[in-house]
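Dear Dr. K.,

Following up on our conversation at the group meeting, I've run the structure prediction for glucan endo-1,3-beta-D-glucosidase from Turnera subulata. I'm pasting the input sequence below exactly as I used it, so you can double-check it against your construct before we proceed with anything downstream. Let me know if the numbering doesn't match what you have in your notebook.
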Amino acid sequence: MVLEKWLGSFLLLLVGLSNIALGKLYFGILLDGGAFVGINIGTDVSNMPSASDVVAILKANQITHVRLYDADAHMLKALANSGIEVIVGVTNEEVLGIGESPSTAAAWVNKNVASYLPSTNITAIAVGSEVLTSIPNAAPVLVPAMNYLHKALVATNLNFQVKVSTPQSMDVIPRPFPPSTATFNSSWNSTIYQVLQFLKNTNSYYMLNAYPYFGYTSGNGIFPIDYALFRSLPAVKQIVDPNTLFHYDSMFDAMVDATYYSIDALNISRIPVVVTETGWPWLGGANEPDATKENAETFTNNLIRRVLNDSGPPSQPTIPINTYIYELFNEDKRPGPTSEKNWGLFFTNGTAVYTLSLSASGRITGNSSSLFCVAKPNADASKLQQGLNWACGQGGANCRAIQEGQPCYSPNTYQNHASYAYNDYYQKMKGSGGTCDFDGTAMTTTDDPSYGSCVFTGSSNSSGTSGGFSPPVAFGPISPQGGSVNLHVSRIQYLASAMFLVLALL
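The predicted structure tokens came back this morning:
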């Protein structure tokens, strides 16, 4: 018992240290252990799916972060209990009113944020969309709007959970290359300085809309298209900043670094950059030869691999570039050229426009119409046990297949057994309102998790017999951490194993 207590105390100390070692402490902001790729959801779409169908598509592709351009009530309700992190948007039309009235800001927060928390996982408010370049007349009230919204969050004790920022385009940086000499447009210096001060004071982050597609097509051949598409360049064409001698393998990295240098030029630092929009159109008009499905597929898959390698640009190599792709569906109702209407990754029926690798390991999206409910790879073991007990008991799941000697018993882990039980419950009850949540420990997937003689309920291979599940590696757009706890490991063995695991990680 003394040994066990000692091991437990030592483990707690090591876990505390490992939380810092595994995370990324960036000037007082503890970022999670892995970068993520999220997605923007625009609504200028003919035959827009219902909010619940949109969320089903997100879950089917395990998209864990989304940005909304407004605070649509239907979407915010549908996202409840999904675990998906949500950025809600103040529209450009709302910025003026909020920036002129603290009471309007407070009412907006109460209606569009506080009333949905904690069920809907709102983590940030994006104030406007490229306000400085799209509605410059609103610039004087942009920072007051951000301040009023933040104060409303403070008043409701939500300021630690919900950050406030404002997305800006690369147009506010007139000469982004070389990155080391980049500065913000001097005509916006006063406003941008105030924005940056606000972000620093509130531990928020800079929201950047960065499009290599536009950087390339407007560059008159200065840069090769491979540079915009994350393709490797031959030695004679390497892109190098002459002042720092940093090599840039992609225009995307250069744009992010240009933003960091522009922030530094105003003598402000310690503000991480999150890319709130980037992408590549897959169809264009006769005068848009680079808007092709092949280029879009190359850009998007290389972008995902780039972001999920968990590194930053050359000047900030340890800071991941969390990124939101533009966009979920084609917004065919948008005005402008053909390319403007064709940025979507998915058609409205949920099928992918082109082949997507939604993970660093190259996992390909599936277009299966079947959804399975499985345990999250990084779910807490005690919560998994509670969820397993509920599903096999009150939930009415048939858990015979995960008993010893049955086809789904091995591997004998909470992860495996909970996944089977969760799915059996979900397949039986989803038609009458049953959900795949289990206190945040479950997620849906289109990947059939059946293996060997172990067949999941709902599988096309099912003949009515019970099967089982071999836990898959979760795919993006996330960089998951996980593992399972064996059901029969003794407490001392578990503590000792965990201790050595943490030592290895450190």
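Two things stood out to me. DSSP finds 15 helices and 15 strands in the chain. Residues 156 and 281 are 41 Å apart (CA to CA).

Best regards,
J.T.
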